Amino acid sequence: MNAAIDSELLHRLLDEAFAPYPVTAETLDLKQEVRGNLTARAAELQAAGATAADAARSALAELGDIGALLGDVDGDAPADVSWAAEERRHRVRPKPAFAVRVAILAGVLAVDVVLLVLQFAGVIPRDELWIVGQLVAAIVLVGWIVADALRQETTTNYPVPRARALGFGVASSFLVAGAATLFPLSWGVNTAWVVILGLFVIIAIGLFVFLGVTATNRAKPWAVRLQASRSDVGDRFEKDPAAAARFGIYTVVIFAVAFIAFVVLSFTIGWAWSWLALVGGFLVMMLVLARMLFGESASKGGDR
Amino acid sequence: MTQNQGGDDSDVFAADLLRGHTDTIVLGVLRRGDSYGFEIFRAIREATGGAYEIKEATLYASYRRLEKDGLVEPYWGDETQGGRRKYYRLTDAGRAVYRRNVDAWVLTRGVIDNLLDTTGKA
C-alpha cells in the first residue's frame, strides 16, 4: 500500500487546475511550488491508508481556490509615492544613548590613534608597553563601534541580529589586529609576526566572507516595496554590470601595484614607511570607487 | 478542510483570531529552520492539535506577502524525484518583525485578559 504516489495523476490534475490561467513566470513558479507541496501531502494521505488515486485527488481538493492565489497580493506601493516622503513617514531617530556612546568611543579612538602616530613618528617618547595597550584598545574600540552600529534600527533597516553584529565586530577587530602587527614589524622583521599578521588578516577575511554570503535582507518592508516598484533607485553597479567588472579589475591592478611598491620600499627605505604604499593603494581604490559610482552619471547629466 | 468553519460560533471566532496572525505564525515556524509549504502547514496543524487548520490557500498568500516584504527569501530545493520544493528562509528583517509582533501580542494578550477578567476562570 505504501507504494510510490501516483505522480502522473497528480501532474494531470494540477495541469487541469492551472489550465484556465495565463502562463506567466509567476503562475509557473506557483504551480511548481504547489506541486512539491501536494506531492508531500499525497504521500502523507497514502501513508494513512488512502489509495494513490484518492490521495492525489484529495490533496488537490484541499488546496482551495487557485484563482485567489494568483490575484495580486495586496498593494504595490502606489507609483506616485516619493522616496523622500516615505522616508519622512517612517523616520527612526538614532537613540540618544547610542549617539553619545559612539561619539565618545570615536573620540577615544581618535586620541588613541593620534598618540600612536606621534610615538611612532618620535614626536613623543616611545613606550612599548603603552603602545601595546593602545593597540589593544584600538582593536576593541573598532569592534565595539562596528557591532554597536549594526545593532541600531535605522529608517530603512532593522537591526542586525546580535550574533551577526558581534561577528562583524570581531571580524573588524581582527582586521585592525592585523594592521596592528605592522607596529612590531616596524621594530624589526620577525617571521613570527609576519605569520600572525597573515593569520589575523585571513581570519578577518574568512569571517567577512562567511557573514557576507549568509547575509539576508534586513531592509524594512516599505523600503523593499518602494525599491521593487521603481528600479531606478539602484546604484550604478547594479544598472551597469560592466562598470562593476571594470572596478574589480582596477582594484586588482591598484593593489598589485601597491603591494609591489610595499615590498620594494620595505627592502630599500625600510618597514617604517613602506606601509604607506598600502594606504595609498586603499585611498586610490576609494577615489576610483567614488568616481565610478557617482562621478560619471553626474557628468552625463539628466541620467537621473 | 472546511469542517472547521462549520463548528459553532466560538470555533469561528478562534479561527479568525488565528488567521489574523498567519504571517507571524509562519515567521515563527521558519525561525526553527528553513522549511517548505507542506512542512509549515503540518507544523501549524500539529501545534494546534489538529483543532484548527489554516487553509493552504491562506498560507500561499502569506508566503507571497512575506516574500514581497523581504521578510522571507525563497529558494528551490534539489529534490530529484517528485515535485521540487520551494523552501523559505527567514531574513534578518523577518526575525526583527517576528520579535516585534510577538511583543505586541504579549502586550495585547495581557490587556485583553485584564479587560475580559479571565483570571480565576478556567
Provide structural commentary.
The complex is a heterodimer of chains A (304) and B (122). By secondary structure, chain A is an all-alpha fold. Helices cover 74% and strands 0% of the residues of chain A. Chain A has 15 helices and no strands. Chain A has helices spanning 7-18, 25-47, 52-63, 66-70, 83-89, 96-121, 128-150, 162-180, 182-187, 191-213, 221-229, 236-239, 241-268, 271-274, 276-300. In chain A, helix 1 packs antiparallel against helix 2 and helix 8 runs antiparallel to helix 10 (191-213). The radius of gyration of chain A is 29 Å and the shape is elongated. The model of chain A is unreliable at 297-304 (pLDDT under 50). Chain B is mainly α and 122 residues long. Chain B has a single domain (3-116), classed as Winged helix-like DNA-binding domain superfamily/Winged helix DNA-binding domain (Arc Repressor Mutant, subunit A, Orthogonal Bundle). Chain B has helices spanning 9-19, 22-31, 37-47, 56-68, 92-116, and strands spanning 35-36, 72-76, 86-90. In chain B, strands 1-3-2 form a three-stranded antiparallel β-sheet. Chain B starts with 8 loop residues before the first helix and ends in a 6-residue tail after the last helix.
Concise structural overview:
The complex is a heterodimer of chains A (304) and B (122). By secondary structure, chain A is mainly α. Chain A contains 15 helices and no strands.
Q: Give the tally of structural domains of chain A.
A: 3
C-alpha termini separation of chain A: 65 Å
CATH architecture of chain B: Orthogonal Bundle
Q: Give helix and strand order of chain A, one letter per element, not per position.
A: HHHHHHHHHHHHHHH
Beta-strand content of chain B:
5-15%
Please summarize the sheet with the most strands of chain A: none
Q: Strand-residue fraction of chain A?
A: under 5%
Top-tier CATH class of chain B: Mainly Alpha
Annotation field: number of helices of chain A: 15
Tally the structural domains of chain B.
1
Arithmetic mean pLDDT of chain A:
82
The side-by-side strand order for the widest beta sheet of chain B comes to: 1-3-2
